[in-house]
Amino acid sequence: MRRRPQVPVPRVMGILNVTPDSFSDGGKYEHVDRAIARGIELRDQGADVVDVGGESTRPGAERVPPAREQERVIPVIEALASEGVTVSIDTMNSVTALAAAQAGASIINDVSGGLADPEMYRTVAETDLVYIAMHWRGHSTEMANLAHYGDVVVDVRTELKDRLAEMMVWGINPDRVVLDPGLGFAKSARHNWALLARMDELSSLGYPILIGASRKRFLSKLSPTDAPTTDRDLATAVISTIAAQAGAWGVRVHDVPSTQVALSVYTAMEKGKK
Ligand code: PMM
Hints:
By secondary structure, the chain is of the alpha/beta class.
């Protein structure tokens, strides 16, 4: 019998915000027990990775002291890692990244791409964990004023390339680096769509790409006015398929089941090709 080649699909990263104020799920998983149960549920729904965050990055959000951030995330990471869940830590703070690594996290997801904390690259190099470096221009309180680009895709690519050069100076293993265009971070809806449409230009840097579109504000225009953010899960799932087609390494989503269906459609279709 002829063996069919496996269809590569993006990893699904399930979002677990242990925060009182994240824009879509803030307050829902603030308590440790509920957060752990949600992490297990995400894994059981098919998430390959559970991305645990203790500081909201929604537009306008205030910073959280690293000690408070760690109080929120470390018990959750310890419990999930001991259950065999692959955990990433969503943090801009090197001390939190290190504590998370010691608690069992295997990925550092840094929305600032190393710009928020000058010690982050040292920690990444020392822990040798997978490092997701997102395109970022400034903190949530100021990012709306920083959404100015010539050609957004060219500019994001150049700025990510600059980050990569700096990472190499610090001795970060290039095989451990994943890049993310940072949809919604100092980006308008038009910028986000351009980055999605021209993902190949970002992939041409030679690094795996993660896409985080889930429930973001630019999708709100596709739903009726005042619809809940969960209404954006269908659009998010469609974007997961688009990301798969573009060869993305991963997609970061709140609702894992809808993205799993979307990726199954993609896989079935790909298998239809000779
Ligand atoms: N978006 C948010 C938080 N963390 N991490 C990566 N790598 N990429 C993203 O796009 C991203 C992220 C903000 O969304 P949330 O408040 O729903 O978590």
